[in-house]
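Example (one chain per record):
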Amino acid sequence: MPDRILITTDDLEHAVRINAGVEAAGFHTTLAHTLDEARQALRRDPPPDCVVVTGGLHESGAAQLLTLARDRSVSTLGLVEETEPDAKGLARRLGLTGYLEKPADPAEVAATVRRLIERRKLQQRTGIIGESPAIQEVLVKIEQMAPVSSTVLIEGESGTGKELVARAIHDLSPRRAKPFIAVNCAAIPDTLLESELFGHEKGAFTGAAERRLGRFELADGGTIFLDEVGEMAPATQVKVLRVLEDRTFFRVGGTQAIKVDVRVVAATNKSLKEEVALGRFRDDLFYRLNVLYIYLPPLRERKTDIPLLVRRFTPEFAREHSRPGHLFKGITPEALQILVDAEWPGNIR
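Predicted structure:
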């Protein structure tokens, strides 16, 4: 079934041309001639996959429509007047998923709509929820970084979704059919982390009754995710640096170099740059990890996403606690405002 696109007729001339171009690109299109028509279309189940607002972005009706679209997790594309002094700022204030300047080429609109819908499907597949500009920027970076093999450093507080982002990068990459191996460096004692990462030979130490493959070897051809990499001991940092430099390592107690083809995605809940300045993290390893960079904002920096998260999780919690759907009527505006105003030190866990 083709994706469904709702096009407003605020700018009728643009709307007619874009409708023809988007329809020719294989989408099912609907023209909304009034604000009420557009609202009704967004309230139906299922709602459209994307809304193209062709004009009137400074009017209150457009802001209301875009808020409803955001609440329904529908992508939005705004067409901005070429005389607009700050098109990017306007798009951010309105919460548009994307924008194009007029005069807009119908083929470019169709390509942009397709990209926004694919990004929405990526969110649904990965569980990365959010319409805020900060989260949209993260999604754009995932799309850009996934096809290459460069290392990625993800920084963000605990609970911001670092592993979700790492998995999304892997799932969109050419390595998707190969393993994704996650290692929490903070959860493994320093004395065991080297063996966990690189494996060991039989008899390498007391209790090593047989050869054991390490996580780098298990991830060969795929992606290894080093979570809380900032907690890694200096001696282990040296060995990880070697893998990044020449793609080889030795098992603990081994004498034969093992070559692997692994993409490294690392994450930390602290600033590695500051850790380098304090002498707690190797600067050469930092530069090797920080080839591509993603910052994940805490929930308090993207409060507009909280209502979406509430709507996403409350039905799940109701099921978990045996609260039938007909008994749970939703959240009052006052209760929702309390949630929006909260600091959320643990973010989303």
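Caption: The mean pLDDT is 91.
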